[in-house]
Amino acid sequence: MSFRRTREFAVPVALLGVCAILAGWLIPSHVTVVGGGNGLSPRFFPYVLTAALALLATMQLASLFRGEAGEEDSEVRSPVLEAPDYVAALSLFAYFAAIVVIGMVPASFLALAAYMRCFRVKSWWKVLVYAAAVTAVLVVFFQVAASVQLPRGMLGRALW
Amino acid sequence: MRAQFSLSIIRKAAGAALCAFALAAPAVPAQAQDAYPEKPIRLVVPYGPGGATDLAARALASVLPEFLGQGVIVVNVPGAGGAVGAQQVEESEPDGYTMLMTAIGANVLRPALSPDLPYSYDDFDYLARTQINPNVLIVKADSSYKSFDDFAAALKAEGASFKYGTAGAGNVTHLGPNMLFGELGLPASVGTPVHYDSDGAALLALLQGEVDFAQGNLASFASALQSGAVRGLAMTTPERVEGFDDIPTYTEVGLPEVSIVGWRGVAGPPGLPKEVEDAWQAALAKTTEAKSWISLVKKLGDEPGYMPKEAYDPFVKKDYERYVKIAEEIGLRK
Amino acid sequence: MDVLDLIGAVTGYFGAIGSGLWAGAHLFFTLSNLLAVFGGVAIGCLFGALPGLSITLSVALVMPFTFNMDPLTGLSLLTAVYVGAIYGGSISAILFNTPGTPAAACTTLDGYALTQKGQAGKALHMANWASMVGDLTSTILVILAFPLLAKVAIYFRSPEYFALIVFSITVVGGVAGRSMLLGLIAGILGFLFSTVGMDPVQGYGRFDFGSLELLSGFSFVPLLIGLFAVPEFMRQFVRSGRSDASVAIAAETGAGDDNHLTWREFKASFRHMVRGGVIGLILGVIPGLGATPAAFLSYEQARRNSRHPEEFGHGSLEGIAAAEAGNNGVNGATLAPLLTLGIPGDVVTAVMLGALLIFNLQPGPMLFVTHADLIYGLFCALLVCDVALRIVGIAFIRVGRYVTRVPTGYVFPLILVLCVFGTYSINNNIFDVFVMLSFGIGGLVMERVRLPVVPFVIAFVLGPMLEKGLRRSLVISDGDPMIFLHSPIAVGFFILTILAIVTIVRSRLAPPNSSKA
């Protein structure tokens, strides 16, 4: 069985796992039901949805076994995410962490500069001028015009 | 009034610009803090823009600078029925530059209904109550209940079963009718709440005939009352409300305890310095006497209801305790 | 005699509208009102077009100024901002696969495909014309039938509302994509994510794990931006990593760019625009539905009626026309429940309600007696908005076309940062930024396992409405499901739903199409 086929099977199997977690743990212990209301319980829809999801996942599995959905794409990628995808995803969380630590404005300046380099903007001075200009415009727009208080981050709070 | 408005906008814009420069220039050493408001103040509204609390905050922010000497910027932090914004203020630095527009929902009802919230009703430094928000009991205009007595008699009748529209579970519009049932000596089961998303949606349901009555925000029902689409049976304020003089109060019909009113005011995070407290208390006392503010508040459907800190603290406590009691009675407190 | 009476009544009805419009125009056509409309449309367009900046922010920004204006000027400004923003959302949807406003999510389907083919200008012009025609259609109908429209809201009680949502979900389900099964799975997942937070009926937490942020539920805009903009950013990131030089979004098509809308293309899409306007009108009158479902419904109807349904999703101009006309058709219609019942349908009308109160104008039937000229003045403002939409739109289209030729290194990092700022500013909450980035990665994974994003988004919007409608109805009927069969309107929608299901199943099963189910 090729990588591709494995992936197609993995989705419904994973969904069935999610359904089991929902029905067995999440819905019974994380949906509050308090007396004093009538009609359907807050758990009704989560249960119905879980059941529907389980049914659909099973149908998907069945159709895979019958070989129906084995529609061959010309482009066959083996893993769901490849190395560059992980880099991109990690960089996003790095950006978020930077916002929390050093504040939104400096973090965004750094993110802009770093991403521009990754996007093959070669000249350093263009990168820096553009990133600085964009950051300045955003600060003026959000903080001054729209009076949004941008997060200062842990560092910002400690400094001033 | 218009001149004041525009002046305050200019001041606000200038203040905001100054604020931004102050934030953007960390190198400037901290000045000696002589006079408290030295930069604009954020007034956090724990609800989205356009709502009653938001409009109340904006009305306040348009008049306050005159007495506070600094701009006031309204910041909306909605979420979890007001809990997110309230929590944000509760956690913030008590430097007097982040204040909360208090409301019965975020400050009292949420903590009363959910003991596991990260903040409690008394985690704030309440500065003053500015206004109250009358609730009114309404039925459709073609209903057979011409007066509150008709309605009360129907409630007390054998096998009575009513549906009423609310603006959401655990809201004043939900607890208010329950207080009414309690005071009439009836079980909560005489009325079944149907929870909608807003006072307006509850009103629509009443007009559609989907529910039998509703008790909610006067401002939201005012136009329907004036056009004669619905009939007001009782008002929750101690005195009759100007413009709605034909609607009796609960006190008049002999049920003074059903005085569920929404209220709004200003609070800060716990531990505000004395000078901040003083500045705000003085400014709020003067603002609530300003003609421009009073007319704005009335237009928005609230009643001016200034209450200084000394009275506000016990008022909030009393309100909290009574809603905890009701919530426990009807099994709402989890 | 009867015929004469009828003619008399009809002339009287339209005569009143005519004289009302005349008086309204008298009140409206002042320099400050025109400036408010043009300025408002421009501000709205800008906020709509910049991904991440929401209508809410733009309204919150102009709100303090409106309170200071004449009532008509203030209301015109708010309306213009709304109209502009709904249109503006299509610009970033077309250029960057990022709906600038939720209502433009549908426009990404075809708009971005055209941009990648180097035909951004065509798509942008079509979106502009469609917004205009859709808005104009519904505005004219609103003016002609305003007193009747107010009644529509009265007839949509909880059971009817539920039936309408069931119908919408079924019809829109056609957007599912290649595999019906995977589309349904994506829809169920979207519905499940919408259940996080406060239970819409009883108000208690679901899946909140004691966190206030989760108790508030996932906000729609961060989720939407996450699902569309962030995966696109990541794709571009990976793409640029493969090549050595910087590249632009649009394919290199040489000098002869096919960027102008031809009269034939306009004509072919015209009926979709008018239909979209009518669909928007109907959904706009019912409070709480909003522009997003209108766009999808209109899109799906257009696909059914098109001569080239296979182009939908791969750069169909008709698709853009239908989606944009649908969401803009809502604009004028939301005024009906606001002005006649005082019931706001969304954040913009909520702010307008506040403005009305500050101007001492009580919404309700009496408003039409006491302030008829103001209402008709507002209708004039809506009509002028359409003119402004075209003029302002042309400027935005110029800039937009230019942007597609700029190297992605300047565009996508900027969009990402804008999305971060914008997402934060919606609720002033950093959690939303985290939600946006997480859903972004989720969106990429969904794409790789071939789960379509659009059904997820639709279910996220419509799911809570479905749940509210069903649960409220059953509270009202004390648990008796027969309540749904007692209402003729609801039964009508159920029959339509069944017909829709039959059509979908047939079209999927019967002809052995080139595209497999």
Question: What does the main sheet of chain C amount to?
Answer: 2 strands, antiparallel
Quick one: which chains have the greatest interface? A-C, 68 and 69 residues
Q: Give me the count of strands of chain C.
A: 2
SSE order of chain B in H/E notation?
Answer: HEHEHEHEEHEHEHEHEEHHEH
CATH class of the largest domain in chain B: Alpha Beta
Write the H/E string of chain C, N to C. Answer: HHHHHHHHEEHHHHHHHHHHHHH
* Number of separate helices of chain B: 11
Estimate percent helicity of chain B.
40-55%
Please tell me how large the radius of gyration of chain C is. Answer: 23 Å
How would you explain this protein's 3D organization?
The complex is a heterotrimer of chains A (160), B (334) and C (517). Helix content of chain A is 71%, strand content 0%. Chain A is mainly α and 160 residues long. Chain A has 2 domains: 3-65; 83-159, no CATH class. In chain A, α1 (3-30) runs antiparallel to α2 (44-65). The model of chain A is unreliable at 72-77 (pLDDT under 50). Chain B is α/β, with parallel strands linked by helices and 334 residues long. Chain B folds into 2 domains: 2-132 and 262-329, Bordetella uptake gene, domain 1 (D-Maltodextrin-Binding Protein, domain 2, 3-Layer(aba) Sandwich), CATH 3.40.190; 135-235, D-Maltodextrin-Binding Protein, domain 2 (3-Layer(aba) Sandwich), CATH 3.40.190. In chain B, the strands form 2 sheets. Chain B has a 6-stranded mixed sheet, with helices on both faces. Chain B has a 5-stranded mixed sheet with strand order 7-6-8-5-9, sandwiched between helices. In chain B, α1 crosses α2, α2 (52-68) packs across α9 (274-287) and α2 runs antiparallel to α10 (291-299). The longest helix of chain B has 23 residues, at 2-24. The N and C termini of chain B lie far apart (47 Å). Chain C is mainly α. Chain C has 2 domains: 2-154 and 266-429, no CATH class; 157-218 and 452-517, no CATH class. Helix content of chain C is 75%, strand content 1%. Chain C has 21 helices and 2 strands. Chain C has helices spanning 2-28, 31-49, 55-66, 71-96, 105-116, 120-155, 158-172, 180-194, 212-215, 220-242, 263-285, 291-305, 317-333, 335-341, 347-358, 365-370, 372-403, 408-427, 430-448, 453-476, 488-509; strands at residues 197-198, 205-206. In chain C, strands 1-2 form a two-stranded antiparallel sheet. The radius of gyration of chain C is 23 Å and the shape is globular. The relative contact order of chain C is 0.18. Mean pLDDT of chain C is 86; it is low at 512-517. The chains are: A mainly alpha (160), B alpha/beta (334), C mainly alpha (517). At the A-C interface, α1, α2, α3, α4 and α5 of A face α3, α8, β2, α10 and α18 of C.
